[in-house]
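Input set for joint prediction.
Command: fold jointly, output tokens.
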Amino acid sequence: SQELEQSPQSLIVQEGKNLTINCTSSKTLYGLYWYKQKYGEGLIFLMMLQKGGEEKSHEKITAKLDEKKQQSSLHITASQPSHAGIYLCGAIHAGGTSYGKLTFGQGTILTVHP
Amino acid sequence: EPEVTQTPSHQVTQMGQEVILRCVPISNHLYFYWYRQILGQKVEFLVSFYNNEISEKSEIFDDQFSVERPDGSNFTLKIRSTKLEDSAMYFCASRFEAGGQTIQYFGAGTRLSVL
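tokens >
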């Protein structure tokens, strides 16, 4: 089974709509990271969550961590075309080394229609 | 704002040739990483590097791969004899630590095409 599962795999929304992307880990999380990637480009760091119940926001993007479910959600409010891209969750799993390798989900492709 | 820089942005090579991918991590970061992403697949960890030595590596990182920090600023990934399946986007990352939080910052990547 996959260590990190993202859903949905792709999402098409109309500009102005809200949306949520989920990331579920099959292993205990030490840290959960959200990155954004434009097609063929690098990963841009969005947010990091470590503690259960933690919630962080940056502009119109909010991420939460549910420690019990080992799950994180990324919520975008009033989406804009600039939000389009691939959203990746990455995790450092508990019990690993201290060198912090990230394991990634398969990504969610977000398209925002004007 | 400091960033991780990677060169070249695109490298085309013949199968069996050696390639060196270069990265300049953010200064004062101490941990460095290489990841790769085959087209349409997940980003995969290759290797981490700390204190001038490999700290962890994946199964992908076999004897054909090596990393080096030849001076105080560059961090390189060498593939000795490239195979078709090495074609991928290679990302370098360096790690920031503060207040118990660690964040990896990624470069824009090098697209490696093996013909």
